[in-house]
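HUMAN: You are asked to prepare a plain-text protein record giving the amino acid sequence and the backbone structure tokens, both parts labelled.

ASSISTANT:
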Amino acid sequence: MGKSVRSLVVFLSSLLLISLPARAQQTLGAINGTVTDSTGAVLSKVDVKIRNIDTNLEVVVSTKDDGSFVVTALPIGTYSVSFSRDGFK
């Protein structure tokens, strides 16, 4: 292989690597946590309402037995999070 052919192969390989698409910015996020009472005990079966302030998208989940919750695939934005359970204020 001649010197000019090798140079051309190196140039084309470099051009290919440069032109590969860059990773896109992430557009989804998640919110997770653990719900506890004032004594620090975990609370199961608490309704967790997550609402996007701008779009009013609303997701409601319940905490697991260990008080944890997770909501994934949320569009990036500002959210309000509220908790409710019978017998709690």
Remarks:
- The mean pLDDT is 84.
